[in-house]
Amino acid sequence: MGSVPTGSVPPGSVPPGLLQTGFVSTGLLSPGLLRRFTAFGLALVASLYGGALGASENPPADGFNAAGSDAEAVAVADSVMASMGGRQAWDMTRTLAWNFFGRRTHVWDKWTGDLRFQQDETLVLMNINSREGRAFENGEEVTDPEQLAEKLKLGYEAWINDSYWLLMPYKLKDSGVTLKHLGDGTMEDGEAATVLQLTFEAVGVTPENKYHVYVDKESGLVEQWAFFAKASDEEPGFKTPWAKWESHGDIKLSGDRGQAQLSDIRVFGELPRSVFESPEPVDLGAFETVSASEATSEG
Question: Which of 47, 67, 92, 298 is deepest in the core (most CB within 10 A)?
Fold first, then answer.
């Protein structure tokens, strides 16, 4: 996977080399996340969610199983992207930060792949594309090659898991994903939803997983998911809500997973290189988060 330029890109374009791997969750906290069709059918399904998106407005990642995915499911996935702010807003979103269930924190530059990961006394500064970087334990740099490899593996696999818990609805057409339309369903809160099934092939850490994703018929947003450890499982290992959607710049993110929470969610533009290169403590409150339309006006 190629490197990504650190500079701004023109509005409406996709930053070159944006990461398009199929994020698949691991462990519980995550136990271990085109067929031909008529224009009428696509418009009918998408109209239920507030309008259709053309394929060019939300193109799939290389490796998305378009041939094996339902047209209805793809249309719903496109409408979900629109409900969250749209593909352009997502592509132009640069840096995301969040806390995963009170256990660990991430600051991720989506354009470059740079990651700052903190868990207890372990700090990892790495690039998730190259999987190279540095690690620190109790403030001391880890220099032993085997120990460093373990720390980098910890940071990378935590990022795969934790970013999927935050960003899954943006990854519905990721590499390795097959989408199926399961029809109408009812969420735990009694609200009506359209249910999509996600299965995976040769991506992530646990490609044997399966998810059922519930798209609320009124909001057009994902408001529940169900996790299956194996694609052959009939009953899910768990279900959680995707609640309390909030705007962050031009995109929407949800951090409420019922009994567990993703907190301190923030979206930034370009952050200083020291955030990703220096082990010194970082006060994210010192940096301005993006405001509406700021991301798409850069460059």
Answer: 92
Contact 281, 123 (CB under 8 A): no
- Rounded Cα gap, residues 224 and 213, in angstroms: 6
- Contact (Cβ atoms closer than 8 angstroms) between residue 106 and residue 98: yes
- List the domains of the chain with CATH numbers: 64-297 (2.50.20)
Which pLDDT value is given to residue 284?
97
pLDDT at 54: 45
The residue with tokens 């969750």 is 25
Q: Residue 66, Cβ neighbours under 10 Å: how many?
A: 16
Count of other CB atoms within 10 angstroms of residue 154: 16
Task: Give helix 39-47 / helix 71-83 axis angle, nearest 10°.
Answer: 40
> Contact 223/193 with Cβ under 8 angstroms?
yes
What pTM did the predictor assign?
Answer: 0.80
pLDDT along the chain (299 residues), means of 10: 28 31 35 32 39 66 96 98 97 98 98 98 98 98 98 97 98 96 97 97 73 98 96 95 97 97 98 98 96 56
What's the Cα-to-Cα distance from 192 to each of 168, 215, 238, 245, 267, rounded to whole Å? 20, 8, 19, 18, 31
| Residue 43: predicted pLDDT | 35
**Helix/strand/coil (H/E/C) assignment for every residue in 98-132:** EEECCCEEEEEECCCCEEEEEECCEEEEEECCCCE
